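Aggregate trends can hide what the representation actually does to any particular protein. The sequence in question and its structure tokens are set out directly beneath this paragraph.
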Amino acid sequence: MANRWNGQQRPSQKGKVQQAWVAEARRAGAGRLRSAPARRRGLSGPALIYLLCLALLLGHYGPGWIDRFSLPTVAVQTPAAPTPVVATDRLSGNFGFCHSGGGTNCVVDGDTFWFRGDKYRIADIDTPETHGPRCAAEGQLGARATRRLQVLMNDGAFSLENADRDTDRYGRALRIVTREGQSIGDQLVAEGLARPWDGGRHPWC
């Protein structure tokens, strides 16, 4: 007869083993059916530390690496402006006055002079007449222009540059007198002792 335990049938040794197997199987099945834990989103602790170290290294060495691999800057050189060529003045003389007749080195009036036996007319200006002025004012201004031209001709070496014509109707050589590239005639004009030559004479009275 089957053994009784507390009013119930007492399980045999074989039944205990079977019950233990069933219980173990149930636990295993329940574990399989249990849902797997959800993965955490985001980075783990070691990954965050690695990224932080990488950011620090780039911040410290990054500018140097960029400069090392960047293209070199090419300097653009602006061509220098050409140096103006200044004419070398090679003519000189000791000028006096020669109001009438010929001479070697002398000044006739404000725009006419003799140099080395040749008579020259300054081609780029016109000055008041000193030989037969139309009025006293013209004669006085012409005398001032004559004295000033004599000073300028004795002020150092000069050059004689060709004009649009070689001679005028009186046989005088037409030349522009310059010193260091500047016209002496222009200086007389600036001082009020001459006018720029425009091809015709105009009254000074």
